[in-house]
Catalase
Amino acid sequence: MAHHADHDSDKQRQLDRDRVSPEGAELTTDQGIKVDDTDNSLAAGERGPTLMEDFHFREKITHFDHERIPERVVHARGAGAYGHFRVYDDALAEYTSAEFLTDPSLSTPVFVRFSTVGGSRGSADTVRDVRGFATKFYTRHGNFDLVGNNMPVFFIQDGIKFPDFVHAVKPEPHNEIPQASSAHDTLWDFVQLQPETIHMMMWLMSDRALPRSFAMMQGFGVHTFRLVNAEGRATFVKFHWKPKLGTHSLEWDETQKIAGKDPDFNRRDLWDNIEAGRFPEYELCLQLVPEEDEHKFDFDLLDATKIIPEEEVPARPVGRLVLDRNPENFFAETEQVAFHLGNVVPGIDFTNDPLLQARLFSYLDTQLIRLGGPNFSQIPVNRPVAEVRNHHRDGYHQMAIHQARAAYHPNTLSGGCPALSENGSYHHYQEKVDGNKIRKRSESFQDHYSQATLFWNSMSGWEKEHIVAAFRFELGKVETMSIREGVVDHLNHVDHDLAVQVAEGVGVEPPKVSNTPNHGRSSPALSQANAPRDTVEARKIAILAADGVASADITTVRDTLTEAGAICEVLAVKDGTVRAVDGGPVEVTRAMPTVASVLYDAVVIPGGADSVRALMGDGLAVHFVAEAFKHGKAIGAADEGIDLLERAGVVGVSVADEGCRADQGVVTRRGAADDFGTHLIDAIAAHRHFERQKDAVPA
């Protein structure tokens, strides 16, 4: 089976055939006619009218006028990357006949698109929103699209409500405000009238809606699917992607500032890390439920607003995804990639989840208008590596040159070809379906609060504080007081203390008693406080410097952190170089006015009396440190650098008298200390230090 190892190169070779390079070429029209002037239109004299016979002008302008295609109604803002997936072993053969999930010698090429949901293509990356995590597997048996999000549940249970939800969350129709934000009346009016949204709203108000990077973001298939093995036996399955770097988020104040400083923050992070060889990695994990256990839970497996707690059904690691190549053209690949839940391969099937059933129609329907007709699967990024032979003909953008006379089945003129498959074809799982034609939601879908309470109970103290603050911010933007009251009433079914805290912040009378007693159950797997915190890979570290800096401190810190996988940048008041204490030059990576602390994961202040004195006299440098401390980030300071901490108002932590000290993410060193870098790594790997007392945080 050695040929399997080359499988992921098949897609690369396919894409190579579609590349158009301008190198060494002369400019031509679309008909291949060479062009010697593309700066001046054909005119009747130097100041005369432009002549319509100028075919080059007309072709050039026509193409430009038609460059844009309709953006996605949702998930318009996105970034993508190619990679490969490999399953760990053949153990899943017991559950599925899908080859890419059962053959560990097979490397399956993939394309992954990450996205925000609500905003337009021009919106910022760091808005509070759900993130899409869509994966196209180019398998030998056809494409499989796992179209998921970074949250395991959804706002609604039935797809017929999807237009209502999207219309509610989109900018208000009378003024097209606000962009890429849920903090407005129509969304929260919908929420207060649709209690099935409450569980998802808890996730949306949590830090899960503010991912630090796509490489530090979980992915979920959301729905319950089926795996089907070679004997036709089915097993329910939930798909999870777990990032190698752990699941980490930004802080709300930080995201708003990043949206102004670098609206491309997440897509830039993805692109830069892949270009630098720091490839994002994820582990595919499956929650498997035997069909006979379908009804053993206190919720319905077909309800997309519910999770299966990992403490009840562990997420079993089965394979590894690596993203290792950036697209070469954003429009051709990332913008034109077409995902569809109906793209499945033998061994994977659907369930009767009503939201999933609706998506099976909606995604295909969407691509028809976005990509101009039924032949969008021939676009290179969408084309399968599996051979395509059928009787589809003509239509917009038909790329194939069909040579057979017969475009129908059965036929004799083409020898009966393409013939029906005898082996390896797709067989739908045989499930008996019987019932009256009705419009009615199952009673098993009616519990809208218990899992929202489970989520709340599972949060750490700082996560709960952030959720309360998010509700207060969002509802504080709602102008209609009765909508605020309606949401608080729903929250009182989730947790009384939560409802009271939110009410007190938005001017609503706090509820006197709980609508529903808190059941007290929790799921530790839901808390980001329990995420892995053992690496500084892909973390960005700002090292502040000015003339007179102790270059040895910079070298030591940079070497230690770079070796551990972090990205270190030296920042100064201006570009170029600064003078080290020994007189030598120190290269500056970026000028401080072009960046901000919110774009970094940690800040280090080297020693050097003159350097620190200059930084202490620079308001931007002082603010840089104070803001990083406010956002819970790791901070390191050596010798005189400790003075800048005090100037920035970093209080409530202990500093070293001699040697090295680490306290609440602040690492200080006086004199010689070999463990300064080790303590820095530990502080940065912890991601944030929200244990700092609020009264110790500078304004």
